[in-house]
Model the fold of this input.
Amino acid sequence: MPEAARGRWRDLVERRLPEAARADWPVHRDHCFARILLDNTCNGPWRESVRAPAWANLSLDQLGAATDLGEAVLAGRADLDGLNRRSLALRGKLRGVPPFAPMVSPPECLRDGDLVLRRWRAADEDAFAALNADPDVMRCFPATKDAAASRVEARAFQRRFAVDGYGPWAVEISGEGFVGVAGGARVMRVMPFAGCERPGESVEIGWRLARSAWGRGIATRAARLALSDLFGRCGLSAVVAFTAEANGPSLRVMHRLGMRASGGFAHPALPPGHPLEAHLLYRLSADEFESERSGA
Done:
């Protein structure tokens, strides 16, 4: 299985994409296609999280996501120019406005009483690593994460604000400090549900909190605050949320936010038969959010 996936990836970037290259495409060489697909999959310069050669060291999940993104380019369901500009923006090399960024730049923080959603700091990395190492917090994720993986993830979150104009915020409670993460993230992988066939066109709202923040309504408050920014400053018309069927706490937050159940799907990051493979999808439009918030 790993060898077949690696062979498919190499054939895609070394032969199929270069052979299909059009005059109006921004790149034509195999290493350029690989750079674009890998950066957008990793949400940062890929060598920061994957050792070279990528084909030998990517996880099967990363390999599948990057390959599916390339297949979407070939099928005309992904804009190669936009993906290239996003890759360059992730590397700090783009001249001009990133392709997906809203007109208004992100603020440093959002506030609701003692709750603060703020941009990431280097000092958050240890607390975030501890959160990601907690098996109770990560019970509905495929696995816990070590400190190195947590550091890469936190830095990718921060880059999203510069590149996409929003991202998962660091969550802080006055007097307690960092307690987790919540916010919107552009979905850059192909997902098996309507609206996400074209990578980058759907935005997911999500949250992940330390156990000390559970049972206090913080996830719902943080998500509402992030949604206000996504639907307001960012001008989004709708978001999605999804989680494993077994994740009752997150499903309850989705209901409190007024999100609509929209069926289920098998998550492509998980192998067939995995206990977390079955996921539930929820949707929320800007109009529905405003109606819920106003009590209409």
